[in-house]
Design brief:
Blueprint: E1 5-16, E2 19-30, E3 34-38, H1 45-53, E4 60-65, E5 68-69, H2 75-80, E6 83-86, H3 98-102, H4 104-108, H5 118-131, H6 148-160, E7 166-170, H7 178-193, E8 197-201, H8 205-211, E9 214-219, E10 222-228, H9 235-243, E11 266-275, E12 279-287, E13 291-296, H10 302-310, E14 316-321, E15 324-325, H11 331-337, E16 339-342, H12 346-350, H13 357-362, E17 370-371, E18 374-375, H14 377-391, H15 407-420, E19 425-429, H16 437-452, E20 456-460, H17 464-470, E21 473-478, E22 481-487, H18 493-500, H19 504-508
Parallel strand pairs: 3-8, 3-9, 6-7, 7-8, 13-20, 13-21, 16-19, 19-20
Antiparallel strand pairs: 1-2, 1-4, 4-5, 9-10, 11-12, 11-14, 14-15, 17-18, 21-22
Amino acid sequence: MSETSILEVRNVTRTFPGVMALDNVSIDFRAGEIHAIIGENGAGKSTMMNVLAGEISPDSGTILVDGREMPITSPRVSQKLGIKVVFQELSLCQNLSVGENVLLGAFAAQPAISYLNRTRSGRMAADMLARLGMYDVQTDTPLAGLTVAKQQLVEIARAISQEVRILILDEPNSALSPRETGRLFDVVRNLKSQGVTIIYVSHHLEEVLVLADRISVMRDGRMITTLENGPGVSLERLVAHMIGRSINASGQYALRSDANAHKGNIAMEVRELSVPSHIRKISFQLWQGEILGVAGLPDSGKDVLADAIFGLLVRSGEIEIGGIRLAPHRPSHAIAAGMSFVPADRRGAGVLLSMNVAENVISSALERFTRAGFLRLGLIRGTAQQYVDKLDARIASLGQKIATLSGGNQQKIILARGLVTGPRVLMLHEPTRGIDVGAKVEIYDILKSLAADGMAILMISSELPEIILHSSRVMVMADKIIMGQLRGSKITEEAIMSLATRSDRERAA
């Protein structure tokens, strides 16, 4: 690894109304290193990435590339410097094929009038996919048919399809299985060996300790420290730098108990649910007062389960909430019956980016906040503030555009919107995706409190610690069916992965 700084940020400050997003931040990145940036939500990581991507300009400070001052005034300037950013929220075109998405950047760099050699382009896209180990995905496959996990790998393939010197990855494995994460790490290390600088932004501290050469910690818009990764750098030390005090790092997860086991009637019953190509005739019950965790690999069917139940996908079978049978393909009917859904793709299907915090919080229950056709502004503000306080969302004001919030705070506002309806059944898909250690604790405490009050919670997650420590029961999917259920002391990583990697044929045997 070279000791030469390829990129330097010196005394950069950036403010938004009521928020000091970056406070005199300085940091350098070496050629051919993996440099992790960690910090809680609101620490300034997202703003830093946007500055380097040319999406926003700093109020003051300088940026140097190869030792020369180089103002990054636009995304085009950033890209010409060889800086490529893969944001956590996907920016792919769902109506195009996998290969077309991989080569979008290359197409954009061509002259307005030029000949597109589809055979050559197809080979180029296939080569990029092969570098990520995606041999099972054809370049002519419609992107919309892939799971979120595979779409994320396509996004990374697009970033490396052009000449890249500095690759910025924002929570790149938030929706990946352990196997896909290992593949991603191999790709990152291979790029490093080719001299590419990797800026790795992650909330997963364990993976940072495994992967990074150096680790920088941000807090409240300031750069706290940069550490050479080695024997003296521990999970506890990183957490202490992140939150400004020492705690037991295992405290990021409360110990699982059976206190949130079901204590009432059946809240939801699913019978013979099927979704073409994704789920095959599964049946299960969700009880009042329990958190039912759903685990499985990306192709297991778990990632479409909540969408199907909520009525967003073509489905067959029966779903009942409190004895009310839900009409298929009608989310409004599910909401009226007492269901709320927090999706994994918060930018594509969750937040209303053009609206402010208060409007997002109450948007799922507008009828409660109107009288004679007029909005009850006082009630809206009071209710929104109540949930902002309850979830400890870091905002400048209720009128702040939600697009300007960090990813974790956006997730909190989506959860608030789901709770405003007073649901009997709450479904969450990747509930803490992209959320930092401190915010996770708050979300878990809220979910356990809701379950203790009798709410039925269905939690679908790719994070095994989340499933293991916060579920009273775990349902494992594989091969488009429910492969098994686990309770109590049997909820272990080994047991979950054993079920998740089985096939229907093995189960029958």
